[in-house]
Structures are given as C-alpha cells and as structure tokens.
Amino acid sequence: MSRFIALLIIVIPGIIATIGIKLMRDAIFHIVYPVFFHFVIQFVIGLAFFILGLTFIGGFILHRDRKRNLTKGRFSKQKKS
Predict the structure, then answer these.
(1) What are phi and psi of 70, to 5 degrees?
(2) Which of 16, 39, 57, 73 could form a disulfide with 27, with the two C-beta atoms 3.0–4.6 Å apart?
C-alpha cells in the first residue's frame, strides 16, 4: 500500500511537469489555447508547471535518499551548533 502511495506522489507531479513541457512547446509554435490569451503567458505558466513538478520530484527523491543514508554526506542535513 505504501508503495502505491509513493507511486502516486511521483506520478502526479510528473504529469504536471509533462503538461508544462507541452504548454511551452505549443507556445513556441504559436499554438495558443483559449484559456490563455497570449502565447507568452502560456509559456510562463508552462515553465512554472515544469519547474514545480521537477522540483517536487527531485525533493522527494532527495528526502528518500537522505532517509536511507544514500547521499554519502554530500546532501545530508548539517547540525547547527
């Protein structure tokens, strides 16, 4: 059950990032969807979707690797003294 939840946590931001890539590609080729009234706004929203999705996936993987001690000290949290 926990693996299924983890899969969903990864798949949903992946879909959002994919939608962002599609919006950016369509904006470059001047294919504007009716929701957006200008291709620049469509590109910026697509870029935001892509960055947010990619950041979430990267943070999730980093959190999982820190928990399993796979970061080899490079990304481990440092204690404040």
Answers:
(1) -105, 5
(2) 39
Q: What is the pTM of this model?
A: 0.83
Residue 74 lies in a domain: no
Query: For the packed helices 2-28 and 39-67, what is the interaxial angle rounded to 10 degrees?
Result: 150
Count CB neighbours of 44 within 10 A. Answer: 15
DSSP letter for each residue of 8-32: HHHHHHHHHHHHHHHHHHHHHTT--
Does a structural domain hold residue 78?
A: no
- For residues 52 and 44, is the Cβ–Cβ distance under 8 A? no
Q: What is the pLDDT of residues 5-37, one digit of tens each?
A: 888 888 999 999 999 999 999 999 999 999 999
- The tally of domains found in the chain comes to 1
**Structure letter (DSSP) for residue 57:** H
